[in-house]
Design a protein that fits this description.
Length: 338
């Protein structure tokens, strides 16, 4: 289940010069659940400063450096949802982010999977999400980033959401102080009320993904919308609605890292959807008394076989996936036809 590819063409990129503001609002002043929920509903995002402990952030980064960076095999990646080897830039930063670190093999990556599980299932993180939902949450997808290839402006709802559009909520967790030169996570406040297009017809992801990207990018440019990039430090978490336009600005210094997790949550009462029309069955496990999903869990033998087959046929499986997705979207219809 891929999010937008991290390989950003110059046509759709957002640079630091495009960002309207970074500092300013004191998010810590939102002292009550009611004030935080109201801010999220009005602006489509919310920053929770220092939500995750610094020691836990440091441990996650250290385990990544020790276990993941030295690995030379295939792992599922955020941009393609396919198994790939590391793609490194000139300074050795891994540029193809991991997909679902909670699903990594405990035998091969024991410390990194364990610390990812501890952080992403923590009471602090789930408590903040459930404050937004006003009901229990389910973690359905997660990612890990070291380098920042940049991400064009988009709405998550085009890729994944719930049966009631806009209920899915994302969380971007800074594991270190994010230098503006490595590129920052940006959002467009209030854009959760914008309809940037449905994943159907001439905008469907299987056949016309670039048209969707161009439509959102052109809309942002033509409307001169505010692009806000909050300054995020180690342990800070930015939450956003699946309807809020967001992305990552292009880096200017390849030597810098951007260690971070991304997580996507849905309300327990909602149905998880892919590409606006394909229901996804989830089977969450209970971890730290919270519900987390482990898609293609590599602790399961069958899933290891599937990864090995996908890695051996890197062209065949993506083509098959694309054909299946195109068929399902045409048969089930996008959001506008539901």
């Amino acid at each position: 289940m891929a999010e937008p590819s991290s390989k950003v063409t110059s046509t759709f990129k957002i640079t630091g010069d495009d960002i309207s503001s970074s500092a300013g609002f004191n998010y810590g002043s939102l002292a009550s659940p009611e004030s935080r929920r109201a801010y999220f509903q009005q602006h489509g995002y919310l920053v929770r400063p220092g939500l995750i402990g610094k020691e836990l952030c440091d441990r996650a980064t250290l385990c990544f450096e020790r276990e993941i960076k030295s690995y030379d095999g295939y792992l599922y990646r955020q941009a393609s949802a396919n198994p790939e080897k590391h793609e490194r830039n000139a300074t050795g930063r891994i540029m193809n982010p991991l997909l679902n670190p909670l699903s990594l093999s405990s035998r091969r990556f024991p410390s990194f999977r364990a610390v990812s599980e501890q952080l992403l299932s923590s009471g602090e993180l789930f408590g903040a999400v459930e404050e937004i939902f006003a009901e229990p949450a389910v973690l359905v997808q997660s990612m890990y980033f070291e380098g920042n290839p940049g991400t064009w402006p988009h709405q998550d709802g085009y890729y994944l959401d719930t049966d009631t559009p806009g209920k899915l909520t994302g969380a971007w967790i800074a594991l270190e102080d994010i230098d503006e030169r490595v590129g920052r996570f940006y959002i467009l406040p209030g854009s959760q009320r914008v309809d940037a297009g449905s994943n159907s017809g001439n905008l469907n992801i299987a056949e016309n993904h670039d048209r969707y990207k161009k439509r959102v990018h052109d809309y942002v440019r033509s409307q001169h919308l505010e692009i806000r990039a909050p300054i995020l430090r180690r342990g800070d978490v930015l939450f956003w609605s699946s309807r809020t336009i967001h992305g990552a600005s292009m880096p200017t210094d390849p030597n810098l890292s951007r260690h971070s997790y991304t997580a996507h949550f849905v309300p327990a009462s909602a149905r998880f959807m892919q590409y606006e029309c394909i229901p996804v069955t989830v089977s969450p496990a209970t971890v730290n008394r919270n519900s987390v999903c482990r898609p293609k869990d590599q602790n399961v033998l069958m899933n290891r076989w599937i990864l090995a087959l996908e890695a051996r046929a890197p062209r065949l499986f993506p083509r098959l996936k694309k054909a299946v997705i195109a068929h399902k979207i045409k048969r089930l219809g996008g959001r506008q036809s539901r």
